[in-house]
Amino acid sequence: MSFRLTIIHPCVGRRAGMKRYIRTWKMEPIPAAMVAALAPQDIERRFYDDRLEPIPFDEPADLVAISVETYTARRSYQIASEYRKRGVPVVMGGFHATLCPDEVQRYCESIVIGEAEETLPELVDDYRSGRPRKVYRSSARPKLNRVDPDRSIYRGRRYLPIRLVEFGRGCKFVCDFCAIQSAFGATQTHRPVDRVVAEVARVRRPGQMVFFIDDNMTSNMEAAKELMRALIPLRIRWVSQASINVAYDEEALALMRRSGCQGVLVGFESLDRDTLKTMHKGFNMMRGGPREAIANFQRHGLRLYGTFVFGYDRDTAETFADTLEFAKEQGLFIAAFNHITPFPGTPLHARLREEGRLIYDPWWLDERYRYNMIPFVPKRMSPEELGAHCLEARRSFYSWKSIFRRFRQPVNHRDVWMATYFLAINAMHQIDVAGRNGLPLGDESWQGNLIPA
Questions:
Q1: Which CATH architecture has domain 151-431?
Q2: Rounded average pLDDT over 320-325
């Protein structure tokens, strides 16, 4: 009989009686497709997306694989417990497994620490031969040239109409709040350009956007430029995430535009120089800071998804007002106004724990915690005030008055397609301003008990 591997993509959480999952969270799960691709090809593979369908726990399986993020940790342990009480072994990997290995390995038979390119095939073979180990750890960052995601597992499932493709993994910066730099040691690796271009050509669909899911696409600027040159003949539309330094590289900006870039997410985070230094993002103030950077992006026809975070020790109610007006005045395409979240393994989490300011510890497992709750005590406002200010900033930014004001920025309506897209995506964000607030982590209706190893 063929060895049976079941791959699960867990949801963040679900309210009791919840019929539909949050639409904006229904993107293709690339980690699950990578697990399917890395597994030996002579085994039977099945995939279930917890966001879209019930998991058939009684279906025969020889091994279950779950990629765990901090927000999905509680649900992952619930799913694992259902399989383990049926005698099915579970392996867990992903960011959270790397950042919190002692916690994660309590709820599974085996854990993959670090990237899985080298260890997952060995792990499956060990289970097939009946000699599995508890811990599989990558000794170094692997080369990302082994396989492409196996997208055949997506068949029959309705994801958002945007194609996700990975080029680079990791980031060279050491931002105080970022779990990416903790997981990858402030390094970045990338896939061969020809392999990425071939994948884009294979998966593209007419009219669909390609989203390069890199944590920072321009962390290695020369590699990013090489990719962009190779993308020009494909005539695609694409978006990604980038650090602010790309705004001062004229060649990179021109290549972004020529290769089909429609816009980038840039973490501006704060307009306060001292706060940025605390974040280890003082480079955001280089060469004139955010205002000059935005002007450069827009001059090249590139739209901006600006992100801002609040809750650092210098932040007050006035910080929100100033940031909100800046985002509107600059004509940002869309923006995020979120409180900082102390993810495990980050300097921010360690500092707040040492200062005794964590309300829930660990917040991702506390039954009282809900999505968008403030899990720490800010210095200059209460947790409730911080949450309320973030919510009000989002409501104001996505009000129709603000939408029409930002629509006047030429880059946001330069053609009919983009004008329509601007109005549609802003209307969607307006509807979803508070849609995720209060979502429990894990399935609220689950009646089982977590089964530790």
A1: Alpha-Beta Horseshoe (3.80)
A2: 98
